[in-house]
UniProtKB/TrEMBL annotation:
Pfam families: COX17. PANTHER family: CYTOCHROME C OXIDASE COPPER CHAPERONE. It is found in: Cytoplasm; Mitochondrion intermembrane space. This is Cytochrome c oxidase copper chaperone. Cu cation binds at residues 24-25.
Length: 64
């Protein structure tokens, strides 16, 4: 019997590596509130949420 495939957007990680996500799938919690703020208030009024999302992305290894 084989192992189930990883969820879409997640690649298998080698030993000691973090799973590799696509940028669109990473940090859904911060992305959702950031996007809602930008739509409702405009990008210029959401700097703190934008930075929080960038920090989350960086913590996963993305260079943003």
């Amino acid at each position: 019997m084989s192992d189930p495939a990883p969820p879409e957007g997640v690649q298998e990680a080698g030993e000691g590596e973090k799973p590799k996500l696509k940028p669109c799938c990473a940090c859904p919690e911060t992305k959702k509130v950031r996007d809602a703020c930008i739509i409702e208030k405009g990008e210029e009024n959401c700097g703190d949420l934008i930075e929080a999302h960038k920090e989350c992305m960086r913590s996963l290894g993305f260079n943003v």
